[in-house]
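Dear support,

We are seeing what looks like truncated structure output for some complexes. This example has two components. We would appreciate it if you could run it in full and send us the complete token output so we can diff it against ours.
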Amino acid sequence: METTVKKYTYKDFANDQEVRWCPGCDDYVILRAVQKALPETGVKKEDVVVISGIGCSSRFPYYMGTYGMHGIHGRAPAIASGVKLANPNLSVWVITGDGDSMAIGGNHFIHVLRRNIDLNIILFNNEIYGLTKGQFSPTSLVGQKTKSSPYGNTQPPFQPGELAIGAKARFFARIGGNVPKDMTDIFIEAQKFKGTSLVEVLQNCVIFNDGCYLKYTDKDVREDQQLFVEHGKPMLFGKNKDKGLVLNGLKLETVTIGENGITKEDILIHDAKIEDPTMHQMLVRMEHPLVTGVIRSFQDFTLEEREDALTAQIKAKSEFRKTNDLFFSGETYQVN
Amino acid sequence: MITLEKNPNAETLDAVVIRFVGDSGDGMQLTGTQFSDTSAMFGNDVATFPNYPSEIRAPQGSLYGVSGFQVHIGSVEVSTPGDNLDLLVAMNPAGLKTNLYAVKPGNTIIIDSDSFTKKNLEKAQYETNPLEDGSLENYRVIQVPMTSLTKEALKDVEGLDNKSITRSKNMFALGMVYWLYDRNPAHTIEFFQKKFKTKPHLIEANTKVLNAGFFYAETIELIPNSYSISPAKMKEGTYRIIMGNTATAWGFLAAAEKSGRELFLGSYPITPATDILHELVKHKHFGVKAFQAEDEIAGISSAIGASFAGDLAITTTSGPGLALKGEALGLAVMIELPLVVVNVQRGGPSTGLPTKTEQSDLMQAMYGRNGESPVIVIAASTPANCFNYAYQASKLALEHMTPVVLLTDGYIANGSAPWKIKSLEEMPEIKNNLVNEVKENWHPYDRDEATLARNWAIPGTPGLEHRVGGLEKDRITGDVSHVPENHEIMTHTRAEKVKRVQNYIPEIQPEFAQEGDLLVIGWGGTYGSLHSAVKQIVEKEGYKNIGFAHFNYINPLPKNTGELLSRFKKILVCELNNGQFVNVLRMNFEEQKFLQYNKIQGLPFANSELIEKFKQLA
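Here is the complete output from our reference environment:
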């Protein structure tokens, strides 16, 4: 009998299916990052289950060498909840997009976060409907011209992090679609987190919304336009790491060290683990810079833990071991 | 301790039908349940039917706020809650007004005369007081000032507010009815002792009022005699009174234990199905995972996830919920996983009649999905056999790797009847299609040759990692395939898999005539009404050429259905809808002519209307 856990490589989590996303799509980066993250988590291959809804991203399970289900539009969190509650030993991943999770599946999305079942959700946010060929999504910007908004979108967007934290998400991270190494690290952290982890990937759609994140993700501007937060470290950014965040009244403000008497000690330290989500909400709402990294990681009881504890209590107290005990209990009578 | 004398004047009857009616806050459901439980313990066969408004607390005294509970008890077999009332107990004018139609002239009405105030009469839209205007002169009306007698009985009990005093008058009525039908109130007194364990003053109060009603009935000259119903001849065994929804829940518990699978329920509350959820959440000691989801779609989707992970997975709902589950049910068809969907039918379309019964979701169960999407459809037909069909639905789902829709309805789900308790040892084996080992050339869509069930490899099993999904699958590898011929073959295969279930279900056995002039056909929850009407016309009125076939298996139909139909000259299909099963039969047996009898009032069939119809045709 094999007693040691096999050391996997990313190839163990791939399969022989031809990947059919458009050339240049960030989905390839995400797929490989998941395949590279899994060997680092210590999870056995047969215990990994990948569940998706509908959309370009939702073809994902077909390209994994694990158990998987390509579900129906918007329902992946519900299907995944059933998988995890049925067998809490599994590592369950949900693959979803901005339309899948926040339009048709909005209800399941908020409730899965509220319940805190130990799932890893990767939200591919490209601010557009790709598979149906270019309609606006719940994260498309006002004014954005799409096939279904030829004169400009009039529906104000969701900010996924804001919605998620409002729905009591315990773990929220955001990452650009073009930084495979950081992305892999965040997926590892998401898997290690006990509870629902939501990772929003700023995923570029090369066909219908190309370049929508360039102002944040382009190599030349990335360091000045993104603040990559890490728990316990000061929230600094910029090429020279000389810019940072301070609190001014009820608002976050960007400052430069050395200007107006600001020193490094004035810069806020990131605390991802506090229960109070106020600061996390402010961080996800910032646009300049855009905050990436693990923004919130508050450890709480999972639904499985609550259920298990309750079940154990009830089992200990109950006189019923078999259904026969129940059926013949209470008010029965004999007919002779 | 009071000893109770047996009523010496008791006249022996075969069966009686009693209905308790009052305001929705008057405790009529409790009163009715206590009477039926006590009668069952005494050995009577019983059938009950609650009838309550969909408003939780409708305005007091209003016509639409009337709540009722009907009990049919017999020393003979009782298969319906009955039509014509031998006794109506009306706690207020609205209850009298809305239920008088069911009392035959000459029969008895017990009335709380205290409640016939000007205000209550107005609320019930009576222009004159029916107790005074002579409109009830064809009935035996027993007026009892129950409210004041209850107050009087409780004057020495401490710790009671006015509300609790008035609310216990239902026990006064129950006490009277116990005396009238020669029943011992001991069971109900025990019930008080359990229910109010920590509130001794409520035990005292309710017991006092119950006894006061009992002795009042004995004492007053208004009730000259009473009736006794001997125990019924029932098969030897241990029994309990069970409600249809409880029986359904227990059928799943039994199937889970027998099959060795854990039970997962994904559900969203909906009348009249919610009691199945209520029942299953209690049984965490058996490891039941009952998940109240955010909506109907999440209910079934979580069940599909649990099924993928290896549980016996079910979801419970009523008509509008089944509509919402349609897409996910199609996914379960496509990925060929075991799943049971319970639809406790109610009146539709849309929100329809949430608390009333109907059989109008048959077409939805059969066809309410996109694409060619066959599922097994079975229907329970009595409160007690909900147990068997929930068990059977689980067995078929697990053995044939397909979703099963189990139809019950508000009538049998809320009705109760004696159930000869089945121990797990008596139940048939449940096999499954689990695979645990890696075999060369293994594919997730490899099938059992006889059933065509695909194999079930669950996450956690090394070497059998595979992907399923809503896209069409290659018939060999299970990979995504858009090949035209493959889609056609897979469509036929899924249909054939369901069709072959015919080889694993019993043939249909008609009751009464095996061939002859008229075959009465029913399905699902109408068994009791149809059976008792046919029995009456055959056994008491001499129509020997009438047969009766009641279907529990709808898709596929039993193998011998065509042959059975050919043995009768006329075929009458009776349904509580506008003709749905009859169309299933027409589609399958084009050569036959089918007559139909339909009722769409949210009510069960009445005996008299069925008999009249049968006589026209026989």
